[in-house]
Amino acid sequence: MNFHYQGRDIHYEEYGQGQPLVLLNGVMMSTASWKPFVQAFSAHFRVLLIDLMDQGKSAAFPPGYVMEDQARMVLALLDHLGLNKVFVLGTSYGGALALQLAVLEPQRVERLLLAATRAYTDPLFRDMCEGWIHATASPQAFYTATIPLFYGATWQQQQATWMAQRRELLESTAFSNPDFLARMKRLIASIMDFDLRDHLGLIRCPTLVLAPEEDLVMMPWEQERITVGIQGAELLRLPGTGHVLFLERPALFVSLVMGWFAHRDSPQVL
Amino acid sequence: MSNFVFEDKAVYYEVVGEGRPLMLLNGIMMSTKSWAPFLPALKQAGIQALLVDLLDQGQSEAMERDFPIQLQAEMLEALLTHLQIPKIDIFGTSYGGEVALNLAASRPDLVDRMVLANTVARTNAWLKEIGEAWILAGNNPRAYYATTIPVIYSPQFYDRKAEWMENRKLLLTETAFASTSFQTRMARLTRSAESHDVTEQLGNIPCPTLLISSQQDHITPYEEQALLAEGMPNAELVMLPQTGHASFYERPDLFTALLIGFLSHRDRVVLP
Question: Is pLDDT of B1 > 80?
């Protein structure tokens, strides 16, 4: 389906019935990335997948937008679909977007799951982003600047053949596609001045933060920053796991997502 | 609530609710009663709870002499036969997790899925000494409290729940910890764990297993759970920061999500 936003098309997909669960993509992801999970999630929820501005089948957008603009687009889409209360799962860039959404309209987000994300682009991450933008100059440079940081060191050792095939595929397709790389530049730029450190207190919904221990993009201490900032937030560390935890540990990811959103009983132990 | 007789001893168990059965195995000081707060969530998820007081626990009959932890696993095997359950999901915490490992090591065919919280593969020399300290403190309720409880809960939990902990201290030191029969049973249970060592058998436990560890666990440290994850072919390891040994008590909401998520959502995910 397409949603018309500021004169451009936003692609979205819906699956299943039940309480709405919005999935927000990482920067290089698209609605297609969630395909392996749609069956499990849509068995219990009305799942909403969105290609954000400059992602997947959505239109290219003029440069200069920031995370808040992505959030306003998502809110407009939720209005359009009549979704007043939603569960939100965001990973990486999509997690930052989930935080931005929840800060703008806290009453709208009923429950949050943040997988490997950040609330603040610190100077280190800002320079990393700038490096990625420079690296769009060649497929090999873009691959080596980004992907080795995205997968955990453990995964890369265990899946060397898969990684090599993936490299070949990415370098010969998306990473050599000027349109894709131009979109990446704008998306990366949109998180470079991101800072919600002073606003996390506005978020009051139950929140689970997943912290992969081998994440070199959204480091474990960024997950701690989020957990400290949101009252009552739960933090779970994932040893031996990298930034793309949903690809590295898909079965665990499904049980965490379903456990967090589908089983919300609060045992009264004390 | 029912009794089942194993080697002349009555073993107390309860079957609660309907659905896919889950056997819950208690930590050393726990009993079937400890699970009450979690039963509504299990019911909601369509899980039938099989609660068991292990040998020398709760309402099960007292033993007369020392026994090895493997006897607990044999008892559970007999109980499952008695209940005509060919294969079951198991949750075990601490001592209960160790019993679960012994059962899964000797009868892997009986176990469908396991969730083990704060569990070790073996009682090493360090843990034996901790057990000895517990046994030595058994004749003095306040000494027993001070020896056992501060290592079970995290410093953060003590700060958060100061009043609750104080009340609990009064209650425990005046009731269970002051009871000679409780202390005799605790000593036997503690000694039974000395023989626990499944390190060589971990590779033969194929069932999908979720391992829950805690950063502030001073009885079954994180590193021991990492050893389990390394040795078991199909295990997933997660870690709760700023949480102590009694993780399911300190983080009940997240614990429930982890347990039920892992047991109820078994979708196979095929990646491109």
Answer: no
